Amino acid sequence: MAKITKLDDIVSLCKRRGFIFQSSEIYGGLASCYDYGPLGVELKRNVRKAWWKSVVQTRDDVVGLDCSILMHPLVWKASGHADKFADLIAECKKCNTRSRIDHLKEKSNTADDEHTEHISIDAAQAHAHDLTNKICPACGAVGNFTEPMPFRLMFETQMGANVDDSMKMFLRPETAQGIFVNFRNVLDTARVKIPFGIAQIGKSFRNEVTTKAFIFRTREFEQAELEFFCEPGTDEKWYEHWKEKRFNWYLALGIKKENLQFRQHDPDELAHYAKACVDIEYKFPFGSGDWQELEGIANRTDYDLRQHQRGIRTLNDWFENNNDLSKIQLKAEDPDYHKGPLSYFDQENKKRYIPYVIEPSAGIDRSTLAFLVDAYDEEQVRGETRNLLRFHPQLAPIKTAVFPLVKKEGMPDTAKKICNELKKYFNCFYDQKGAIGRRYRRQDEAGTPFCVTIDGQTKEDNTVTLRDRDSMEQIRLSTDKLSGYLRKKLEM
Ligand code: GAP
Description:
Elements lengths: L6 H10 L3 E3 L11 E3 L1 H20 L4 E3 L8 H7 L1 H4 L1 E6 L6 E3 L4 E2 L14 H5 L8 E2 L13 E4 L3 E4 L7 E4 L5 H5 L2 H7 L6 E10 L14 E11 L4 H18 L7 E5 L11 E8 L7 E11 L1 H11 L1 H6 L23 E3 L4 E3 L2 E8 H12 E6 L2 E6 L10 E5 L6 H12 L5 E3 L5 H11 L3 E5 L1 H6 L1 E6 L5 E5 H11 L3
Parallel strand pairs: 3-11, 21-22, 21-23
Antiparallel strand pairs: 1-2, 4-5, 4-8, 6-7, 9-10, 11-12, 12-18, 13-14, 14-15, 15-18, 16-17, 19-20, 23-24, 24-25
Helix pairs in contact: 2-11, 3-9
The structure holds glycyl-adenosine-5'-phosphate (GAP).
């Protein structure tokens, strides 16, 4: 029977093998911030690479972008984040712990049933706030909360050294806005025609009230976002296209189908910009083993581009109010907004419009966690427990390890030579320490798909042993066929 993976097993393996460490650990650690170690950094790089390959490299209708994290403060006024990006929280009157009210559990209901990511204050206010039966997660007191209040999620910072020209800035809470404000630049320079998308991978920051479960919800994280611009009226077709495409991406990289599902958002939980939204959920092993959001796919309509047209119209007010965001209101929309600076002119049909946007928005850290959880396995082999990570070859941090059977008879030199040759194509690891069985186990735990062993026979007939991580089967292969064989198997 397959073993049920626990988050603790994953956390402990990640620490032991150098995938993920707590940030600032030698100072006692910084809550909800994590560092990726030597294996983790390769894994995460491969997750990014696989996303980019699927969303940008293999398509001819998507281009890439890399925007700065700090952006003009008016961007956040126009996008709605400055006024609306907040969680409703309540403070426990007994222990003073603040919690998101949508994450509070009922006294009679111990299931981990939090499904929501952030919802706009408007949407949150539509919910009833009866906290009489809700439990404080810190001290267990029931129904002893203050009135709910909004808690802003954007981190603030200061830019500039001089008192008179320094201004309050925000660390971006999503990468998407960098794409919207560059829509015109890309349109004018990249010879793109609607429908087309702009993709970006980068860090985002949110001062989360509840952080959770290792790298699942942190205050600094990486997003992989696509804004796909299309003609209004074709948006529902593209929404379906990206739903299917993104779901299949996880399956193609080895996530088990039974651990993946869609969840359509109810109208009252939609973000302030969305006409429709669906989550791709993964069955994470925390709480009661509940389904949690892995990625959101939203129909953002023409909301953002229209809002930025209003933002640009507000620039004068911004200067007149000494760059103080709190003193300005966004200018009303131009009645001719569809002809504005962020509109698109369809040459063939001689039409001008503001495009609609379909947005698949994934978390790189969160999918890395899902790939780790899904790949984790324990099995009994000859009375011993074998821990292994059954990573898809594209994701495995190390693709092949090369061992000399013993440290003599020229075996280390041959092994090093083979390892260096393979390194031209992919990450390859040389190891000569310890018994061969232990060396195999160490690579199983790192998720390395293949191990190559140089032994006495290598000198005789130029063959090596190739061991498969998943089946543990071994075959002999001639050294001149090795690189080609592995590159095919590893899809490199
Ligand atoms: N631009 C749309 C947007 O940002 P979101 O649902 O708030 O939508 C998209 O975030 C994805 O980013 C989530 O599905 C999740 O994978 C990731 N994400 C969001 N907040 C996160 C956090 N605090 N820690 C880790 N990943 C997060």
